Amino acid sequence: MKILSIETSCDETAISIVEVSGTAEQPAFRILSNVLWSQIDTHKEFGGVYPNLAKREHAKNLPSIFIENLKTAGLFIQKEVAGGVDPETETKVRELLSREGNLGEEVLKIANEIEKPDIDHIAVTTGPGLEPALWVGINFAKALGTLWNIPVVPVNHMEGHVLSVFIRADEHGAQTLDTSAIRFPVLSLLISGGHTELVVMRDWRSYEKIGATKDDAVGEAFDKTARLLGLPYPGGPKISELAREGNSRLDFKLPRPMIATEDFDFSFSGLKTSVLYLVKKLGELSDQDKKDVAREFEQAVVDVIVKKTECALSATNAETLIVGGGVSANTAIRTGLTNMLAEQFPNVTLHLPDQHLSTDNSLMIALAGYFSVVGKKSEHELVADSNWSL
Ligand code: KG4
Ligand code: ZN
Questions:
Q1: What is the pTM of this model?
Q2: How far is the CA of 157 from the centre of ligand 2 (A)?
Q3: Is the CB of 160 under 6 A from ligand 1?
Q4: DSSP secondary-structure letter at 266?
Q5: Closest Cα to atom 3 of ligand 1
Q6: Residue 339, exposed/middle/buried by CB under 10 A (0-12, 13-18, 19+)?
Q7: What is the pLDDT of residues 10-49, one digit of tens each?
């Protein structure tokens, strides 16, 4: 089965084509093509992601990224005679993409020039995310589905982050997946720019949220703290880099919000405010000051995340811990969790995504789409749902 997957929920425009074989319990996953275009340079000067700017960039880049995928996957076949799209389909495609600038005409141009590609399903992120950005991907997917009569499945972006840990590259570049050894219950710690959640899975695709942030997501706290230190967006990787050269200083102590509460919730906005006061108090920041603030901030985050995860593991008797989302790329968090497991829960298996699959990508959307196709159908409609909760 070949799946085309599309991700446009935030500031990455990503498309992949994967071939899945094997059984539903143990699918074998082969990547035929995978292209990711990051809009970071566009958003950098504004210090954050602007939804309408993201939407415009997605619309501009989707056609060429799609074509590049078809070519790499060997599915690009030029028509001998151009044309052939019937007027009714043409009208539908124009209607679907009427609010996406020139995208409708570009899609029709592609359809007139190439044969129907050998793709069985299209998987597209429908939420959570930035609504205008989500709609471009959804309408693009629907247009392709309409043109070539290919079913389109809605995918939850956070489910993608959970499943991202099962995508592995071996030395031949092939991607395999082994889900057969997973022991339930599974605890998932999802940490990204928009989410901070602890989710229990007692079976595949069953999600029970037991905790979440009450205000800012942890990635957001990284990004806002970075801005206070005069660092460019996205701040997470930059803070992490500085923190490595930072020193622990008594006069730089920051709070560990909600670390001792008996729930599994988080709060990061107070931490960011404390950084603001610290930075104001210091006035001019030397390079070493910045490194020291970064270190203390990162340590505060690690302490809270590790403690809450530890409590959640105890309470749920989880046998497996999955960590996903952009912030899971953070080395200090990875190390903190690994050490806590070794000391307290030596029998719990930890699954982390490959570093490059921690942040948004379309491979995880393909995998989530596959589970949707072979397993329990998603009851979700093909509409953008910016707050779609697991
Ligand atoms: O999952 P993701 O790519 O997008 C969302 O779904 O939000 O996560 C992006 C977030 C950003 O806030 C970014 O600063 C953060 O992940 N991030 C990191 C690191 N790499 C990315 N945060 C801390 N340390 C990192 N190494
Ligand atoms: Zn994400």
A1: 0.96
A2: 6
A3: no
A4: B
A5: 359
A6: exposed
A7: 999 999 999 998 877 778 888 999 999 999 888 887 878 8
